[in-house]
Amino acid sequence: MPTAKSVDVNSPTTQLDPEKTHVVTMVTNCGEFKIELDAERNPRTASSFAHLVEEGVYDGTWFHRIVPDFVIQGGDPNADGTGGSGYNIVEPPTCKYRIGTVAMAKTANDPTGNSSSQFYVVIGEDGTDLPPDYAIAGKVSEGNDVIERIARYAPDQASGESPSGVAIIEKASVSSTE
Description:
The chain is an alpha+beta fold. It has a single domain (22-177), classed as Cyclophilin (Beta Barrel). It has helices at residues 43-54, 125-128, 144-151; strands at 21-28, 31-37, 61-62, 65-67, 71-74, 89-90, 101-104, 114-115, 119-122, 136-142, 168-177. It has a 9-stranded antiparallel beta sheet.
């Protein structure tokens, strides 16, 4: 299981160009998947996500929460579901969650659209019923087979155990094209 790492990142000072396509590549021990960031409809959240990738926040973190037919959640530098980037932004979501949506996790006490570094990927119909409280960074554009592989690490919900396998984000990178 990954260990905690110290992270204290300043919030981004620039926003992604909404006229370009911005893709995050997540290389995991289960394979590679890509996230197309939505800089047009969610500029603050997409820019923050890209900034966290560039700062290496996601490197070496794991998917600490896996719930069948719902979500896989990762991006916690504390490795236990309690950590963040050192800053928060707020941007209310602009559309409904679909399977493959990448949205930012928050606590129940945080305002709608609040985000730090933790994110989740909607993997099932139960996730599409989430209330519109979670800022959207983008959507999985490639590697759905990898997302499904990670989802199979789901723990036995009745026992409350940790995931049955460890899916680690080894390296994340972002690229932009016209």
